[in-house]
Specification:
The protein folds into two domains: 197 residues, 2-enoyl-CoA Hydratase, Chain A, domain 1; 51 residues. It has 257 residues and is of the alpha/beta class. Helix content is 51%, strand content 15%. Helix 1 packs parallel to helix 3, helix 4 packs across helix 5 and helix 9 packs antiparallel against helix 10. Strands 1-2-3-4-6-9 form a six-stranded mixed beta sheet, sandwiched between helices. Strand 2, helix 1 and strand 3 form a beta-alpha-beta unit.
């Protein structure tokens, strides 16, 4: 049976995670978190994976938690929310641990858990009409999905508190200025830009961009000496790979022309 919230496919080393519940604006309910966690597990098990592209059908990226489901589950709300976070956090932990880059293409609204997914991405590209809002605390909730881990590392502790406590709605250009996304493109150019970008990243020899992701992630917690050691191991490992050696040979041959 086809998934109702998240569609997964993989071809040519690129995994595609597509939010496919456009009618509900990809609201995060328990089924969404379960299917997202399953997509992350499929990525972890995929051989020769080079990159993951996360996108959404319709007008919005993901509007965050399905508060209607919260109301329906009120008699068991504590258990229900804990179950959701188990699946949601397993998904984000899985994507974060992947030794390949995760690219998010943001269209429309990214709010709540949708905003958390943007913060988790290694590279986020937004349509010019995209909007961002955490929205948790205005309903008496606090962020999940790793937002309190990723956001301070992107914008600093004070600015992270401000964004989460006062819940401003950010334009794509404001998100770009804060470092929450890497690029903003016209809406009609988003799909092509994402395809070109994920193809370029996936085509790097010897999974260099995947190893780059792991170096950048480890640098957040390592000392300089520890990071030096990881850099040395990674570049030495890459230098032995046949794809690397072929790329170096090709570069040298072009430079001699």
């Amino acid at each position: 049976m086809a998934n109702a919230r998240v569609r997964f496919s993989i071809a040519n080393g690129i995994a595609r995670v597509v939010f496919c519940d456009a009618e509900r604006h990809h609201a995060v309910d328990e089924l969404f978190t379960q299917e997202l966690a399953d997509a992350a597990r499929q990525c972890e098990a995929a051989p020769d994976l080079k990159a993951v592209l996360m996108t959404a059908e319709g007008k919005d990226f993901c509007v965050g938690g399905d508060l209607r489901e919260f109301i329906a589950e009120r008699p068991r709300i504590h258990t229900h929310v804990r179950q959701m976070t188990v699946h949601f956090h397993a998904a984000i932990l899985g994507f974060n641990r992947l030794p390949v880059p995760v690219i998010a293409g943001v269209n429309g609204v990214a709010a709540g858990g949708g905003f958390s997914l943007v913060c988790m991405a290694d590279l986020a590209i937004a349509a010019r009409s995209a909007k961002f809002n955490f929205a948790y605390t205005k309903s008496g909730l606090t962020p999940d999905g790793g937002a309190t881990f990723f956001l301070p590392r992107l914008v600093g502790a004070q600015r992270a508190f401000d964004l989460m406590a006062t819940n401003p709605t950010l334009t794509a250009d404001q998100a770009l200025g804060l470092g929450l996304v890497a690029r903003v493109v016209d809406d009609e150019a988003l799909a092509q830009t994402l395809e070109e970008t994920v193809t370029k990243i996936a085509s790097a020899p010897a999974n260099a961009n995947g190893r780059l992701k792991m170096l950048l992630r480890s640098s957040l917690n390592n000392s300089l000496e520890e990071q030096f050691e990881l850099e040395a191991r990674s570049i030495a490992m890459g230098s032995t790979h046949p794809e690397t050696q072929a790329a170096i040979d090709a570069f040298f041959q072009r430079s001699q022309r």
